[in-house]
Amino acid sequence: MSYTGSEPAVGGVAEEAWGPVRDLPRPADRPSGAEVAVWLLRIPPAAAAAAERAGMLDARERERATRFRDDTLRERYVTSHVGLRVLLGAYLGIAPGEVELVRETCGMPDCDKPHGRPAVAGGERLRFSLSHAEDAALYAFADAPVGADIEAHNERRDGTVVSGLARQLHPDEQAAIEALPESRRAEAFLGCWVRKEAYLKGIGTGLPGGLRTHHVGLADHLAPPGSTTPPGWSLADVPAPPGYAAAVALRTDGASAARPVLGALRLG
């Protein structure tokens, strides 16, 4: 999900910047405890292979794909969702097309409708989150509720634009961004945004859960001393290719910090 609509494409990024290529996981590789298995997929090189395997998508996914009038947006959707099914199938030890996906109950108060976190049917103890932006798809897997977000930088944003966007955030986050040199504010805003969206996806509300309500803080390298995160949740910044920012949020027992383990997925 993006906060500004269309973003400029991010190009010229070396392949190795997308992380070490890892073999597909096995059921024994399911993450546990504070571990978050994080995968990055570079969409354009994978698009052709994904199109050939699009038959693994379920009826709801195929119907949604047909709604995209823009070919590039449709390609990104199909490729990222094929990648999700490939990874889920590998972790579960079944064919990707056999993975049944459902929606959990909404995390918003007084709402019991099934539009919360996506989940594997049958109560499998494997939680996941998918995010995509421009040429990148980000996947997170854990044994507890988890959220992930990746966004592309937009070099067209000046200090005035960033200040306006930051007003959507928690007041303490706004103040932390404004306290930085203007040259660092765009980076700080984006780092805070991906943490916020990862958390809101993790609790099952998405953006309606309140950008201003919850304090997640800035990325670790920019956060002021004493910055806090929501109780019972651990947030971690994820190494991302140049031009992107990414983060994950994991529900924990309060004593453990989320530990992302990063790898690159290849479909072709």
Automatic annotation (TrEMBL):
<dbReference type="GO" id="GO:0005829">
    <property type="term" value="C:cytosol"/>
</dbReference>
<dbReference type="InterPro" id="IPR050559">
    <property type="entry name" value="P-Pant_transferase_sf"/>
</dbReference>
<comment type="similarity">
    <text>Belongs to the P-Pant transferase superfamily. Gsp/Sfp/HetI/AcpT family.</text>
</comment>
<dbReference type="Pfam" id="PF01648">
    <property type="entry name" value="ACPS"/>
</dbReference>
<keyword id="KW-0808">Transferase</keyword>
<dbReference type="GO" id="GO:0000287">
    <property type="term" value="F:magnesium ion binding"/>
</dbReference>
<protein>
    <submittedName>
        <fullName>Phosphopantetheinyl transferase</fullName>
    </submittedName>
</protein>
<dbReference type="InterPro" id="IPR008278">
    <property type="entry name" value="4-PPantetheinyl_Trfase_dom"/>
</dbReference>
<dbReference type="GO" id="GO:0019878">
    <property type="term" value="P:lysine biosynthetic process via aminoadipic acid"/>
</dbReference>
<feature type="region of interest" description="Disordered">
    <location>
        <begin position="1"/>
        <end position="28"/>
    </location>
</feature>
<feature type="domain" description="4'-phosphopantetheinyl transferase">
    <location>
        <begin position="145"/>
        <end position="221"/>
    </location>
</feature>
<dbReference type="InterPro" id="IPR037143">
    <property type="entry name" value="4-PPantetheinyl_Trfase_dom_sf"/>
</dbReference>
<dbReference type="GO" id="GO:0008897">
    <property type="term" value="F:holo-[acyl-carrier-protein] synthase activity"/>
</dbReference>
